[in-house]
Amino acid sequence: MKPSRSWMPLLAVCALLLAVLAPQAAGPAHAQGVVDAMRGPTPIANEAKAPLLYPTENKDIRRTRNYTMQPPTIPHKIDGYQLDKDFNRCMFCHARTRTEETQAIPVSITHYMDRNNNVLADVSPRRYFCTQCHVPQADAKPLVGNSFVDVEQLLKRKPGTKGSSN
Ligand code: HEC
Ligand code: HEC
C-alpha cells in the first residue's frame, strides 16, 4: 500500500513558516537578543543607555540580614565620605572608640581579625575598604528576578517538601 500523504500540506506550511521566520531569527534580531538582563538588547559593541540614578535610601533603619554572614547593607547615605589610604570616614563613626559619640554600631570583632584569626588593635587591612562588602541601597525596581528563600523559611517547611531540611 502506498503510504498516506495527508501530512504533505502540513509539511509545506511548516516549511513556509520556517522560511519566513528563520532569516529574522538568524539576523540582527537574534544577534541583538538579550545578552544580559541589566544591559538589555544593546549589542556588545554599542554603549547601553545609562539607567536612571535613584536617590540613596537614607532611613537610618537597620535592615534584616538575609543570612548570618551577610555584610549588612548601609542604611544611610555615604556620598562624599573619604575612604582611601589616608582616611577612613566610616571608621570615624564605626570604630570601637567612636561609637559612644556617634551612636553608630561598632564594627564587629571579625573586622579586627587577620586571616589567622588573630585579633589586631586596629581594623584589619582586609576589612579596611568597607564598600567592598557593604553597600547603600536605592528604592528602585530590581533589574533581575530573585527566588532567594531565607533559610529560616526552609527550616519551617514540612519534611519531604521541596527544599525542606530533611
Ligand atoms: C556620621 C557617622 C557615620 C559615618 C561616617 C558612617 N556611618 Fe554607618 N552608621 C552610622 C549610624 C549612626 C548607623 C546606625 C543606623 C543609622 O542611624 O543609619 C550606621 C549604620 C551602618 C550600617 C548598618 C549596620 C547594621 O548592623 O545593620 C552599616 C553596614 C554601615 N553603617 C556602614 C558604613 C560604611 C561602610 C560607612 C562608610 C562608607 C559608614 N557606615 C559611615 C553612622 C555612620
Ligand atoms: C570583607 C568584607 C567586609 C569588609 C571589607 C567590611 N565588612 Fe563589615 N561586615 C562584614 C560581614 C560579613 C559582617 C557580618 C558578620 C560579621 O560581623 O562579621 C559585617 C558586619 C558589619 C557591621 C555590623 C556589626 C554588628 O555587630 O552588627 C558593621 C557596622 C560593619 N560591618 C561596618 C563595616 C565598616 C565600617 C567597614 C570598613 C572599615 C567594614 N564593615 C568592612 C563584612 C565586611
Structure description:
- The chain is mainly alpha-helical.
- The chain is 23% helix and 0% strand.
- The chain has helices spanning 8-26, 28-31, 89-94, 99-102, 151-156.
- Residues 69, 71-72, 88, 90-91, 94, 105, 107-108, 110-111, 123, 127-130, 132-134 line the site of one heme C.
Topology:
Layout: H1 8-26, H2 28-31, H3 89-94, H4 99-102, H5 151-156
Bound molecules: heme C (2 copies).
One heme C (HEC) is lined by residues 60, 62, 72, 74-76, 78, 81, 83, 89-90, 92-94, 102-105, 130-131, 134.
Keywords:
166 residues, mainly alpha, 5 helices, 23% helix, elongated, binds heme C
Distance between the termini: 60 Å
Order of helices and strands: HHHHH
Structural class: mainly alpha
Q: How much of the residues is beta strand, in percent?
A: under 5%
Mean pLDDT across all amino acids: 83
Q: What oligomeric arrangement do these chains adopt? A: single chain
Determine Rg (CA atoms, Å): 27 Å
Low-confidence runs? 23-32
Number of helices: 5
DSSP helix fraction: 10-25%
Given the C-alpha coordinates, what overall shape results?
elongated
Ions, cofactors and other ligands present here are: heme C
Number of strands: 0
Q: What characterizes the major β-sheet?
A: none
